[in-house]
Amino acid sequence: MDLKALSPLLDILGVGTENARSSKELGNILGWKEAAVGTEINRLRKLGVPICVSVHGFKGYFLPSCRNESKSYERQFRNRLIDAQAAWEVFSQYMNDVSPNEPEKEKK
After folding, report:
1. Residues 6+ apart with CB under 8 A from 81
2. Which residues pair with 61 in a beta bridge?
3. Looking at residue 103, what is its pLDDT?
4. Domain residues of the chain, as ranges?
5. Do the Cβ atoms of 13 and 7 come closer than 8 Å?
6. Of these four, 26, 43, 48, 53, which has the most CB atoms within 10 Å of its CB?
7. Options 1.20.120.1460, 3.30.70.80, 1.10.101.10, 1.10.10.10; which CATH number does 3-97 get?
8. Are 52 and 69 in contact (CB under 8 A)?
9. Which residues pair with residue 54 across a beta bridge?
């Protein structure tokens, strides 16, 4: 499959962590809003394009240049999911403990 035919974003997305570009930078190059960049990245990921995001050092999105970069991103992503799950469980418990019998306030 020719990945670049899927989206103009793939023409400018860097390969390797050192070539990561922020959503703002990608949006400026393409003339898109940052939200549109995020939407397109999610669409491409659903199609199987391995778009990584770096949060350390070079901040932004990139295509992995090797298996080690892919594995590093996989570890980061898994850790974020584990942290999010833990936060959700704490929040859920808090909501159950605070006032389980208190009725919700009506919206005005």
Report:
1. none
2. 21, 53
3. 62
4. 3-97
5. no
6. 26
7. 1.10.10.10
8. yes
9. 60
